[in-house]
Input
Amino acid sequence: MKRFVILLIVLAILLFPMGVIGKTTVTVWFAGTPQGFMDVINNELVPRFEAENPGTSLEVTFVPWGELSIKLGTAFAGGVGPDVFMHGGAATAGFAAAGQIVPLDCYLDSWSEAEDFGATLDCGLYRGKRYAVPLFGAGRLLTYRADIFRECGLDPDTPPKTWEELRDYAKKLTKKEHGRILREGIDLPVRGIDAQQIWAGFLWQNGGSFFNKEYTKAAFNSSKGVEALEFLVGLIQKDVVADTRYDVGQSAAPSPLALGRAAMFFAVPEEVNQIKNYSPEVYRNIRVAFPTCREEQVTLYSFSGLFLSKDAQNKEEAWRAIEFFTGRKALAGINESMSTLPPRKSLTNTGFIAKDNNIKMFVEGMQYGRPNPNIAAWTKCRDVLSRYIEKAIFGQITPKEALDRAAEEINRILAE
Output
């Protein structure tokens, strides 16, 4: 019997090499599946983390953004959620209210590098507590073709600064033949969250807001919000400077802007990077401008970050993974892989930004940025708004009817 036990011990040593026995596994879910992003995580960062932390292994999963919330909800309901996961900052309130994440203040207070993030740490702020450390950010800025501006007699160094100028520029840049649009003056998303985000920019620029100060009732159906939606819908239906048939998204390669099928578009950095990668010959004519202004000069900016699950069995190791992935070197590689905005002050002029004036504009444009409302019901409210904005864009109901009906539904959601 004694010999048998000794034999089992020897076999165990042979079959399970030193350093594997007793390892802690931390599961991490990242949002998005860009190849460059996945390559940096899998081929560079995970091996480096495991080399620096020999007692911990990482189990990484990449989830498409469109599937993230549903998969997380299912995983948490089944008690098999990840230890660490990535999501947008506006999802903080929902996860915190559901008791699915834990505050990170106790870790951040003793982390010497926390100050380098500055205000971006507020991306995960909810009721005075911080729940996320940001990985990267993005904002929507007007992106346009300088060569098409010149062709139409417009100065590419003087982009539109007001709604009226935006409309006038779009009219001059639109090319039509027999009533058919050959080139959109401005390519506008007409469906889903993208359309809602464009309208949000106009809502804020017009001095409007989504909710009242207490976040208990919708306020977006005020005259400010209706006017903003009328302006957006008017560009499509009245001015006919955008074509609803072309709602394919700038993330497609090549993009409508690269093809010359559109002269302007409200883009995020990743979409600008798509043009650079797939149409380098066009990229020298791509320009980025700061947001237009009516009452305020503002546009949507948001940061996505890493959250620590309440159910994580080894929270210290899980925090160590968050600390590693949001470290300066790791963030430099992650943000360069997607041309996104680094959340650290020390990285705002890092290599890939310093070399690209368009990405520099997105960094400088952060001064005009405003995030989505951080309330528990935000994603439900956003989806309701998206549905009704789409109805208005396609002329099924008026902008006022669309926002009034959306407000009725959202007020019921907020009252739950």
